[in-house]
Amino acid sequence: MKERTIFVTEEDMQRLNDLVESAERISSRDLQHLRMLKEELAQAEIVTSDEIPADVVTMNSRVRLKDLDSGRESIYALVFPRDADVAQGRISVLAPIGTAIIGYRAGDVIVWSVPAGERRFKLEEILYQPEAAGHAA
């Protein structure tokens, strides 16, 4: 699989690093996802909010994903754990799909391992990105 450059804003990088640091101290159940998130962040290109491309998933973005195996489409907002509510379509950046999509672009195919094998999603569209909308933190 071809390595892609993922993009993360300076603000998101700081907040995500703080989240990883505090979660590592208190939660052993999310360690695998924390490691995956740390790996993603370590490889990311860090940019300012003004420089982030509008088609990149940032924190609080709303996206449309297509499961390439089932064909099913879903809309999710990527949020910090305290704001997560699956029933409302708000998924935590520490959830497997949240960790998988941060920093990727519309059109990207995302593959990640789950206990039952691999899942493949296409990031169909960024419906809302705070930075592009002028709502960056």
CATH architecture: Roll
CATH class: Alpha Beta
CATH topology: Chitinase A, domain 3
Shape: globular
* Range of helix content: 25-40%
Q: What is the name of the CATH superfamily?
A: Transcription elongation factor, GreA/GreB, C-terminal domain
The count of helical stretches stands at 3
Strand percent estimate: 25-35%
The helix-strand sequence is EHHEEEEHEE
Rounded to the nearest angstrom, the radius of gyration is 14 Å
Largest sheet: 5 strands, mixed
Number of strands: 7
**What structural class should be given to the helix and strand makeup?**
alpha/beta
Q: Quick check: average pLDDT?
A: 88
**Cross-sheet strand order for the largest sheet:** 5-4-3-7-6
Question: What do these coordinates show?
Answer:
This protein has three helices and seven strands, in the order E-H-H-E-E-E-E-H-E-E. It has 137 residues and is an alpha/beta fold. It has one domain: Transcription elongation factor, GreA/GreB, C-terminal domain (Chitinase A, domain 3, Roll). A five-stranded mixed sheet has the order 5-4-3-7-6. A two-stranded parallel sheet has the order 1-2. A hairpin with a 2-residue loop joins strand 6 and strand 7. The longest helix is centred in the N-terminal third of the chain and has 17 residues, at 10-26. The mean pLDDT is 88.
